[in-house]
Structures are given as C-alpha cells and as structure tokens.
Sequence to fold (289 residues):
Amino acid sequence: MKWFFNILILILANLSALAQIDSVDLAITKCQSGEVKLAKEIIDQVQYSSVYNKDSRTWIYKGFIYKELAKQSPETAWQLRKEAISALDMAKKLDVNKENTEDIRKQLNHLLTLFYNEAAKIIQTGNIDNATPLYSTYLTNMPKVDSSFDARKKEIEFLLAAATALTQLYNNDWKKNTGLIEKIEETYNKVLSLDSKNYSANYNLGMLFYNHAVHIINDMEYDLDLIALNDIEDKTIALFKKALPFEQKANEIIPNRRETLMALQGIYFSLNDFEKSNFYKEQLDKLSK
Fold:
C-alpha cells in the first residue's frame, strides 16, 4: 500500500499547478501538526519531483522536518541532523535571489550549535573519539553560517579542552589511567601541529611527563632492590628529559612565567643539573621581589 501512497505524492506534486495542491506545504503542515514521520515521507518523495526539486523552499522544509524528526529518533538523531544540514546546503545553492538566506542561516546555526554542545558534553567524559565526528561537522559547516569563522582556532580550542578532560581523568587515578598519557600526548601534538607556539600545549605536555615521573618516584617503595631502583630511575629520567623541551619552548613563548620557571627548576634538579636548576630558582626569586 505504501508504494501507492508514494506514487500518489509524486503525481500530486507534478500536477500541483493544475490541482492547486502544494505538496511542500502539505509536508510542513503535517510536521507542524506533529505528524513528523508522515511529513518526512512526503518531503522525501516530493524532492524528486521536477516541480519542486529546484525549489529552495523544498530543501528548507526538508531541513526543518529532519531536524524535528531527530528529536523523536535518539538512535539516528545525529545522522538525521547531518541530512538536515545537507538539505539546507542544497537550499542555499538554489536560493539564487537570496530570498531565504536568513532562514537558512538560522536553521544551520541552530543545528551546528547542537553538534557543538553535544561534542563539548562528550569531551567532559574524556571520550574524544566519540566527540570528534560531531565537532568535525561543526567545524566543516560553520563557515557557511559565519564567513569570519576561524576553524583552525576553534579546532585548537576543542583539542585543548579534550586534552584537559583526559588529563583530569588521568589525575583522578594516575595508576589506573596511565594508558591515557599516550592519548593526551597525541592530542597536544595535534595542537602543536596547528600552532607550534601554543603556550598551553607546550607547558601542559611538559607537565604531563614531569608529573608522571613525580608520581612514580612518590609511589616508590623504600625496600626496593638495586635492579628495581635502577629501572625506576631510568623511567623517570626519560620522562624528565621528555618534559624538558616542551617547558623550554613554553618559556620562549611566554618568558619568565612563574609556573614555567618552577617546572624548569624541578626538571633540571631531577636531572642533577644543579647549575641550571639554581639559575631558574634565581629567576623565580627575582619575580618575588
């Protein structure tokens, strides 16, 4: 029976001028009355009609209908919203006279804000892999809404937020979550690939390795044999050496910041380079005067 309904919609669409029936208006009316699934069926058929497929209004309505359907379809909500964005893209291309520009922009902005907010929510759990596709949709499409949108800057903000959330999870239980270090490092390196002079990425990445070394030292048992002690020493020295270039770079980017000087003093002290450790201690003392 459904096939008959679909054919009927196409016939009505193509004969709308004679029959005084506007199938696009019918779809949006059904949507506004709460019959969203029926509205989707109508608009999905109408979009193939030669009468309507070149009409910007068809795709605007499709975007709206899919957006509304997403509210009722949690399992496929984000796919429906992506399809709504695609429909609005088509509407924008067909809107040659710019009659619907503002309506399209508002709908796109609303949808993309949903993607941004959901990605930000997921990021707080440290699940960057699930957040990334949502945020990528936001980054890719926002220039269509705002011509001044800086995708690179926003991506850096996203990656820094992700690294911060992952670091908080690591700090909550560093032994259990040691495996997160690799993911945090990868995330900060993505920031540095976009902006090698980003202070936060350099400083925080250095502190990640530094703090992990300190955790290992503080957790060390006092009755360790020489082999185990040497193993811990090798691990911590490697971590301090790994931290050093990032803290040096951070100090180049923002010279003589207290936090960076303290990190450099501690790293050099841990590497038994007391001359350089004392140098940064003197720099810290100057800041206190």
